[in-house]
Amino acid sequence: MNATKPGLSASRRSFLKKGLAAGVGAAAIYVAPSMSSAIAHRAYAGITGPPVPGLPLEIDEFPNAIAFLTLSHETLGPIIYSLTGPLTIHASIGLDGETLLTDGAGHDMVETEIVSMNLTGSGGYGALSLGVRTSPDSTGKITEATNNTPGTLDLDPFKPGTADSFFDVFFEVQLGGAILVPNPAQIRIPSTVNVKPAGNESFTNVAGSRPLFDSAGVSTFWSMNLTSLVFCPACP
Question: Is this prediction's pTM over 0.85?
Fold first, then answer.
């Protein structure tokens, strides 16, 4: 990939030059204009790959994501946990926001996936960690609100606009050495986002509390409700 490719924005040309200077071709750290490198960064793998063939695979890393989760015991009641830690998202999107997918109304879409998450914290029921299962995949989409630029996601830093985003997440809870999973397992968390990668927008579970089952599929006394997940709480 050429660092001086015509048509690329100044920020994307700068990104490519960083990659070449680092000796890794198109793969490099890119910082979105509204974010600090100490908060979140983007890296392009420079390959075609999942989830959409024909587009670069973007890797969004958030070292200090935060979640608020209510853990409830059947007889002892609820405890609210504040959990923090790293979270990584993959997305198929071009260097300047190019997309290959549209919805039924013609809005450009981007396929996404939470590939890793390790949020931890302590509360009245002890240490707790929240992650995603290795299978099934925790996939999602970003869909622009208005299609002003066909073939490009109308969302900062590519173009002005907002977008609807969601993830269908298969969470995994670790509590006291036990691995617990919600039932039903898939939890949708939607949000309206103003920038790619998402900043301080809150992704909220709209399904309410879910019972937790153990690794053998047996019901437990526990249930969980994820009330908020923010990828980059310190972002503007």
Answer: no
